[in-house]
């Protein structure tokens, strides 16, 4: 199964670009296979995305904005849905994927309510209850750390972008100041014979 992320590579909207970067960055960081499909440069991609976003998920104007996420042909959601799933630590369920082996990922509420043997959670709790609570507290700590790591990655990317912009602006300002000083003192740059 391949996750498809529909993006607009030439979007003029900073907000859309940041949302696209967050989705793509998260998938890359978590080594989730995906394909980025550009709707700005490919009319077929744009048409397919618009036709396959469910009606109730389309905005009032009827044109869904990127990023839009699919698992093959199955619609997963937009950025807001992705962000909520990430915050709730149910991203694999949101994407329609099985969590990687050994991960401490929560299941969605629907998945969590039934046990593999068909029992409903809460019906069959015996002597395992104390052990499970101890294990859960360890899992909760690991989940918090995972969430912090994912959040730190996004914050780090934003910080790097801001630092790059600041450095560019500073270099520009220094260059303009040098040019201005050279215009004000033209005699200093000339050599006398």
Describe this structure in words.
- InterPro entries: Glut_rich_SH3-bd (IPR006993), SH3BGR (IPR051033), Thioredoxin-like_sf (IPR036249).
- Belongs to the SH3BGR family.
- The protein starts with a strand and ends in a 9-residue tail after the last helix.
- With 193 residues, the chain is of the alpha+beta class.
- The radius of gyration is 25 Å and the shape is globular.
- It has a four-stranded mixed beta sheet, sandwiched between helices.
- Strand 3 and strand 4 form a beta hairpin.
- It has two domains: 105 residues, Glutaredoxin (3-Layer(aba) Sandwich); 47 residues.
SSE blueprint and pairings:
Elements lengths: L2 E5 L6 H16 L4 E5 L4 H10 L15 E4 L2 E5 H9 L3 H5 L13 H4 L15 H57 L9
Parallel strand pairs: 1-2
Antiparallel strand pairs: 1-3, 3-4
Protein name: SH3 domain binding glutamate rich protein
InterPro entries: Glut_rich_SH3-bd, SH3BGR, Thioredoxin-like_sf
Family: Belongs to the SH3BGR family.
Q: Brief description of this entry?
A:
This protein is globular. It is built from 6 helices and 4 strands, in the order βαβαββαααα.
């Amino acid at each position: 199964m391949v996750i498809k992320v529909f993006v607009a590579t030439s979007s003029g909207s900073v907000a859309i670009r940041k949302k696209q970067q967050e989705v793509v960055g998260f998938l890359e960081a978590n080594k989730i296979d995906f394909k980025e499909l550009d709707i700005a440069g490919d009319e077929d991609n744009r048409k397919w995305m618009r036709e396959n976003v469910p009606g109730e998920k389309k905005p009032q104007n009827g044109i869904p904005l990127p990023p839009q996420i699919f698992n093959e042909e199955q619609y997963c959601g937009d950025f807001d849905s992705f962000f909520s799933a990430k915050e709730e630590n149910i991203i694999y369920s949101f994407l329609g994927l099985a969590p990687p082996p050994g991960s401490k990922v929560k299941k969605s509420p629907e998945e969590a309510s039934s046990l593999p043997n068909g029992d409903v959670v809460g019906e069959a709790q015996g002597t395992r209850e104390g052990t499970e609570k101890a294990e859960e507290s360890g899992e909760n700590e690991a989940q918090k750390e995972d969430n912090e790591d994912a959040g730190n990655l996004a914050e780090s990317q934003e910080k790097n972008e801001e630092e790059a912009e600041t450095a560019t602006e500073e270099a520009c300002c220094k260059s303009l100041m040098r040019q201005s000083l050279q215009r004000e003192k033209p005699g200093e740059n000339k050599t006398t014979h």
